[in-house]
Design goal:
- The chain is mainly beta.
- It contains 3 helices and 25 strands.
- Strands 1, 3, 4, 6, 11, 12, 13 and 15 form an 8-stranded antiparallel β-sheet that branches. A 7-stranded antiparallel β-sheet has the order 2-5-14-7-8-9-10, with no helix packed on it. A 5-stranded antiparallel β-sheet has the order 16-19-24-21-22, with no helix packed on it.
- β9 and β10 form a beta hairpin.
- The longest helix is centred in the first third of the chain and has 10 residues.
């Protein structure tokens, strides 16, 4: 990744902002100052009060609150521990799914660390203007990666004004929610649009944004106009939020362990001479300076398989039933009708006596990975050994329905531990991957250190 500015640019002078506009990677000068979609005869940019942050040096205490609170139902909220940054200025906001089993704890209805996200809240106030964020959304279903303005006071629920860009929406990353909310006298109303797009969790950087005017809202993706809202227009000063969290009912199932939403930069340029009602929203619960990340971290290469080291008990009891990601089953050739006799896991079954899984006589394990699309390239790797012949690791591509599109097998043979690797590209109409480990009749299969990593999107 190309290194960005050596210092964080906060509120800017007119001259400095002009330089910033032309220097932002992936955002041309024309898209800000000479955008043909922007009615410059109606408004002017207030560069003197513009804000830009590329997170070089971390999360600025003077600009952002780190939220440590929960909203909605059936999630662990957004927690301070899930906020980090890299040495080249990428903000990393972690979201832990249903299969998370680490030490973190939640602050919502879930307290075991599952369904925990991360969020920042601006300490500065915002109103009508241009909002943009360059980011890679959290790539797994069940999450909501978002940029939004928010004015809400716990003591006065009439004051709830909001503009959102949210994904995944409608159970897919092919849909983005562009939404505005307004509450008056206890009545909540909203205007929302479902924008259909190519998948935006493709591993590439995208710029999402909106222009908030006093009488309408224009939404953009990668510089292209996608929606206009005219019915519900907030009119209170607000705070700017960025983050990932776990909604209930419209984001899909969070059937994964962990992954990250990445932010390259965020920008706000106020519009001059647009009406706005002065208001200072009370921020949600937030942490003190001591809880801000103090050192950069390296971005991990996320393993798309959950419980891939087999350290968490699988507890399979019947065919295709399990917890902690893996599902156990018996092939037609199985020598037992009890899966626990043929599939075992944990310490001692892996390479060098570590954790792993052992399958024999027709026992198998399987796991689905969601949000996979055509032309996505993945690498499956693992260590394994097997007595006899016929044992295998199988990678299958599926559409939204159950009929398999394409199958790739890795034959496992040899009684000494060996390293296996498969690199494969998803075919047209792919929606998910299924990994299955099969032991053949008369064979004992041991496997450990599995990884499924996203490599890139292959350009057609």
């Amino acid at each position: 990744m190309q290194r960005k500015h050596s210092a964080i640019t906060r509120f800017l002078s007119v001259a400095a902002c002009a330089v910033m506009v032309s220097a932002i990677a992936g955002c041309s000068r024309a898209s800000v100052r000479e955008d043909p979609l922007l009615p410059l005869d109606r408004v002017e940019f207030d560069y003197e009060n513009a804000f830009f942050d590329d997170f070089t040096g971390g999360v600025d205490f003077d600009s952002w609150y780190i939220c440590n609170a929960a909203w909605g139902v059936d999630n662990g909220g957004v927690i301070k521990e899930n906020v980090s940054y890299t040495d080249d200025g990428v903000l990393a906001l972690t979201g832990n799914g249903n299969y998370y089993s680490g030490p973190l704890k939640g602050v919502g209805s879930r307290t075991d660390g599952t369904k925990t996200g991360a969020a920042l809240i601006s300490k500065f106030l915002v109103g009508p203007g241009r909002y943009e964020i360059k980011m890679k959304p959290h790539p797994r279903l069940g999450t909501c990666s978002a940029l939004w303005t928010f004015a809400y006071d716990e003591s006065n629920t009439d004051n709830n004004h909001e503009i959102d860009i949210e994904m995944s929406g409608d159970f897919t990353y092919r849909h983005i929610y562009n939404t505005s909310w307004l509450s008056d006298s206890g009545t909540g109303v909203r205007e929302y649009y479902i924008t259909e797009v190519d998948p935006v969790n493709d591993g590439n950087w995208h710029v999402f944004g909106f222009d908030w005017y006093e009488d309408h809202i224009d939404y953009y993706i990668d510089g292209e106009f996608v929606q206009k809202g005219t019915a519900i227009i907030p009119y209170l000063q607000s705070r700017l939020w960025i983050g990932v969290w776990f909604p209930q009912g419209w984001g899909g199932e969070a059937n994964f362990e962990t992954d990250q939403m990445l932010v390259d930069w965020v920008k706000y340029i106020p519009f001059k001479d647009q009406k706005i009602t002065a208001y200072e929203p009370t921020p949600n619960t937030y942490v003190g300076r001591a809880d801000y990340p103090s050192h950069p971290t390296a971005l991990p290469k996320i393993n798309k398989l959950a419980n891939a080291s087999f350290t968490v008990p699988i507890k399979a009891t019947v065919e295709e039933t399990a917890v902690n990601a893996w599902r156990g089953g018996l092939l037609a050739t199985a020598t037992s009708d009890n899966i626990t006799e043929l599939v075992t896991w944990g310490e001692g079954y892996g390479k060098d006596g570590g954790c792993g899984a052992q399958l024999k006589e027709g026992g198998y394990l399987a796991q689905y990975v969601d949000a996979v699309y055509e032309n996505y390239e993945y690498k499956l790797s693992f260590y394994a050994k097997a007595t006899g012949s016929g044992s295998r690791a199988r990678l299958m591509f599926y559409p939204a329905q159950d009929n398999v599109l394409e199958t790739h097998d890795v034959t496992i043979a040899g009684e000494e531990w060996q390293y296996y690797e498969l690199i494969v590209t998803a075919p047209v109409n792919t929606d998910r991957i299924r990994i299955r480990l099969d032991s053949a009749a008369g064979s004992i299969l041991n496997i450990s250190d599995m990884k499924l990593t996203f490599l890139r999107e292959i350009q057609a």
